[in-house]
């Protein structure tokens, strides 16, 4: 089943808009570091962090689960 030309053009347009927005945001120095500090990803309550003398383990399993759910929902939204 081939997608209609309208859906294809809309998808390409959205992809181009996202790439353009990312390029504009990338020009701002320090933006990604500031954004990463503000987002709780990587510091969620279910993430496992073990620190001992000379040894540390970090397993961000809840962060990975949240990202997976969001990407799955986005894929399901754009699939239809």
Structure summarized in a few sentences:
With 80 residues, the chain is α+β, with helices and mostly antiparallel strands. It contains 3 helices and 2 strands.
Would you write up a description of this structure?
The chain has 80 residues and is of the alpha+beta class. It contains three helices and two strands. The protein has helices at residues 5-26, 31-38, 61-79, and strands spanning 48-52, 55-59. It has a two-stranded antiparallel sheet with strand order 1-2. It is flat, with a radius of gyration of 18 Å. The mean pLDDT is 83.
Structural class: alpha+beta
Task: Indicate the proportion of strand residues.
Answer: 5-15%
Number of strands: 2
Order of helices and strands: HHEEH
Tell me the Rg in angstroms: 18 Å
Question: Fraction of residues in helices?
Answer: 55-70%
Taking strands numbered 1, 2, ... along the chain, how are they ordered across the largest sheet?
Answer: 1-2
Total number of helical segments?
A: 3
Mean pLDDT score, rounded? Answer: 83
Oligomer: single chain
Contiguous runs where pLDDT drops below 50 for at least 5 residues: none
Distance between the termini: 13 Å
- Shape category: flat
Strand count, sense and barrel status of the largest sheet are: 2 strands, antiparallel
């Amino acid at each position: 089943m081939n997608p209609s030309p309208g859906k294809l053009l809309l998808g390409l347009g959205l992809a181009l808009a996202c790439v353009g927005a990312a390029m504009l945001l990338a020009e701002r120095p320090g933006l990604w570091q500031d954004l990463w500090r503000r987002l709780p990803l990587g510091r969620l309550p279910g993430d496992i962090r073990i620190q001992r003398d000379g040894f540390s383990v970090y397993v961000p399993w809840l962060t990975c689960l949240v990202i997976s759910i969001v990407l799955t929902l986005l894929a399901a939204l754009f699939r239809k």
